[in-house]
Amino acid sequence: MDQWKALPKVELHCHLEGAVRLSTILHYWHKYGLQTEDHEADLKDYFQPSRPLPNLSAFLSVFGRSQVLYREAEFFRRIAYEVCEDKARDGVQLLELRYAPAHCSPDPPPASLPHPLSYDEVLGAVAEGIREAEKKFDIEVGLICLAVSTLGADSVKKTAEFAAIHRDMFCGLDVAGSEDDLEWCWPLVKGVGLPLTVHCGQDICSRAAMEGRAKDNVRFAVEQMGATRIGHGVLVGRDEAMVEWLNERDVLLELSVTSNVFTGAVKSVEAHPLPFFLSKGLRVCVNTDDPGVTGSGIAEEYAMLNARLGISEADFLLTSIDALRGSFLPDDRKVRVRERLDCALAAARG
Ligand SMILES: [Zn+2]
């Protein structure tokens, strides 16, 4: 594992709420004296299931289980700091971390979280945790604001307005939730003035996927919404014409193989089209998505992809170089990272 930790990396797709250390979740869980709906449930398995889930919505329901802990600003400062620390220790040189204000500050509040923090309180705490980690560790971190379509139009509008007000604190905007909602979401987020990535080409239960045209969501995100990056896009599959279409538009796919298996988007690691994408020169990058749910950190993901799909050190470095070019952070924050990637690539090629 040391070899994979040492390799410099760029990671662009990781959800703060889905990357919380299990030990931190358990600390707050016990602090608040909480219990699961199932009193017999093994707590580790409750938050980090040891096997893939049937679909994306089942995965997201596990993701949402820690929402009951969102009670103190200190929780958000701590988890932001710890995620950056974990990534830095795994060799990540530049990280884009995303979170959903509407998920962290639910409105209306659910019975399990009667007094959520405000959007500003959460952002302030997250930004503080990131600042502290950047001072202590060798890592550049950008923050993406995520709008969740399944929470409804008012929520998406509120998130978009919040992102626009705090444009100086976010490097990009993400739209996630249901891929079926992209058409109505787009008018609500288009005026924000931040670069856009969109979760799509992932959900096998979306209307388009059920009708055998999952790629339409990817086309819509790129063509209509102007997304330069796609969150997942794995359902593009081994479609040469679609890969060429994406290449012509210089689109980057933010892939997360373990997560794609966990959400049922692919049947197995071996069935994942990542090697096909690489062979066709498609710009892709390797990410964890939700390591707090899958239990797989980025160095573990690299080791697993090397062992099971034969992805080499040089392949990984080239994906990080593509990721760096696609990163929403300003160029002056990329220079040092690029030098390290180039240096490691020269060494990997001998
Ligand atoms: Zn994601």
Question: Short summary of the structure?
Answer:
The protein has 350 residues and is of the alpha/beta class.
General description of the model:
The protein has an 8-stranded parallel sheet with strand order 1-2-3-4-5-6-7-8. Strand 3, helix 8 and strand 4 form a beta-alpha-beta unit. With 350 residues, it is of the alpha/beta class. The chain has one domain: TIM Barrel (Alpha-Beta Barrel). The model has no long low-confidence stretch (mean pLDDT 95). Helix 17 runs antiparallel to helix 18. The chain starts with a helix and ends with a helix. The protein contains 18 helices and 8 strands. 47% of the residues lie in helices and 13% in strands. The longest helix is centred in the middle third of the chain and has 18 residues. Bound molecules: zinc ion. Zinc ion (ZN) binds next to strand 1. Its EC number is 3.5.4.4.
Bound ligands: zinc ion
Side-by-side strand order of the widest sheet: 1-2-3-4-5-6-7-8
- The residue-averaged pLDDT reads 95
Q: Please give the share of residues in helix.
A: 40-55%
- Please summarize the sheet with the most strands: 8 strands, parallel
Global outline? globular
CATH homologous superfamily descriptor: Metal-dependent hydrolases
Q: How many helices in DSSP terms?
A: 18
Annotated CATH topology: TIM Barrel
Q: Which CATH class?
A: Alpha Beta
Strand content: 5-15%
Q: Structural class of the helix and strand makeup?
A: alpha/beta
Radius of gyration: 19 Å
Protein name: adenosine deaminase
Keywords: Hydrolase, Metal-binding, Purine salvage, Zinc
Domain Adenosine deaminase: 8-342
GO biological process, one term: negative regulation of adenosine receptor signaling pathway
